[in-house]
Specification:
Length: 119
Amino acid sequence: MPQYLLSVHSAAGETRQTMTEEEMQQAWQPILALEAEMKSSGTWVFSGRLHEADAATVVRMSDGMVLTTDGPFVEAKEHLGGFYIIEAVDLDAALAWASKVTRVIMAPIEVRPFAETSG
């Protein structure tokens, strides 16, 4: 079955209202319920939440040497904040799951299919 990346994006400098511990627990309930639905349907493969982009380290080749630099690869207004890897029968099914995710977390979701590789 095809796999899709549902990437969760956040805007740099975007501030969310500070929540109490109880509010945070309440906010997580719909997310956990959605993930349970994904798991029970056989859709969920893996998911993860990322630290802010300024916690990134970039590793690249420069003049034949490995170079590491602090910060995101690209200076951008939006950054990857988290992701879901799902299995869905087709793009329409993946988009339906992305619609559920965006409703729950209130952030834009980019849907991309994984490229098939031989072997």
